[in-house]
Amino acid sequence: MKNIEVATTSKKPIYQQLFEQISSQIIRGELATDTLLPSIRTTAKELRISVITVKKAWDELEQKNFIYTIPGKGCFVSNLTKKDKAQMMEEQILTRLKTHLSYYKTLGLSKEDLIEYIDKYYENL
Amino acid sequence: MKNIEVATTSKKPIYQQLFEQISSQIIRGELATDTLLPSIRTTAKELRISVITVKKAWDELEQKNFIYTIPGKGCFVSNLTKKDKAQMMEEQILTRLKTHLSYYKTLGLSKEDLIEYIDKYYENL
Amino acid sequence: MKNIEVATTSKKPIYQQLFEQISSQIIRGELATDTLLPSIRTTAKELRISVITVKKAWDELEQKNFIYTIPGKGCFVSNLTKKDKAQMMEEQILTRLKTHLSYYKTLGLSKEDLIEYIDKYYENL
Amino acid sequence: MKNIEVATTSKKPIYQQLFEQISSQIIRGELATDTLLPSIRTTAKELRISVITVKKAWDELEQKNFIYTIPGKGCFVSNLTKKDKAQMMEEQILTRLKTHLSYYKTLGLSKEDLIEYIDKYYENL
DNA sequence: GTGGTCTAGACCACT
DNA sequence: GTGGTCTAGACCACT
Asked: Per-domain residue ranges for chain C?
């Protein structure tokens, strides 16, 4: 498991930052099936956040089928096929894209202009 | 002033929806310099939202120099050059783009893939 | 909204008791569409439980589409068709039935005997 | 003793799964009086679970009079009359039935509908 | 007023 | 050791 970073100053809820980072590691195959995640309490201690905040992230990971829990043992990465992962990624992307694109549309930005901006800033922002 | 639409059920704060729609109308030149905005109370009544919420949007518009207030008369569209407008638009876009792109990067999405998604879904999402 | 009862002594988590009681009231039509639920804090106070416990129940209600939230206003009963409700009820029943029946099977109880027990005790247990 | 199967991923505690399976074998007469149960350590090894977990199941079996222990020799199936067994089974069934039925009642399910569901799904769930 | 999030600590069951 | 639940209080944004 790669390092997890959490910004307590961000407007984005901590539990959501956790969810996004871990789910994307699973989707990208950086966390193999049946890998044991660090325990809720260990994670809380290391990141200096509350146990309940970690639990909330883990709950969402389980609810969306990224991990499974064996009470008394810990939480493990679910067994996902490449197809599962591709589908999960697509879902996550489209959910956000929907919101993001509607924003640029409101601003009156054309598709071409948006793409130009992305092309220009993707690496450096 | 074109019709303003507000979704009370959205997760996006109402005042922010107001701000985005009006500021983008100003940037795009749909609201000419010195145009009188409808009064806070009228707007609140028409959109069936609270006066306080409208006030918050108007405040932010004034604070970011989109409108100016003449006490006792109302709020008017600021005198902005094309260059001002272009710069404001750029600012608004880049602020958001920063957040959005970092999200897609976290997911491990390449620039090319992102552009492909946008090309595919810009019209229909 | 009918009275909600919560047994802190039960092994069943409080948030789950809340979820079950409210969702079943919605399914059975005792809570009409767009009815405003009592606020999280009011409910917590009345039932003498923590705000977070109520929140967890409300979260699950929202996640399973029984209610929707307007931040700053409150939580409202979703607009569900009779068909939606019938389907939700079926789902809830089958989920449980699966667990329950497997238990009686393990005990070696035949379908006929189980039905006899239910016929005998449904009213009085 | 028939094969015992244990699902470590289940929400049901492992010791309880053990208890249910063995007690039901005794009740149904598949384990005769004075049969020697496999040792705790053997069972733990075969099922790949902890000795403590098996011990907990055996303890509960003894406490509810299904087995008796001869220190240094092992655990044996108690001498139970048909009447004893019938009564134990009834007890186990009624304990659970009480909980289960109250759940279906909360959902507003009538006795007739519940029986219909069971009739439909007993074999296939 | 409303929800949304978070903390620091607690107690429990299970392994 | 592990996770599951809960409390009592806090601070924040939004209406």
From this structure: 14-77, 82-124
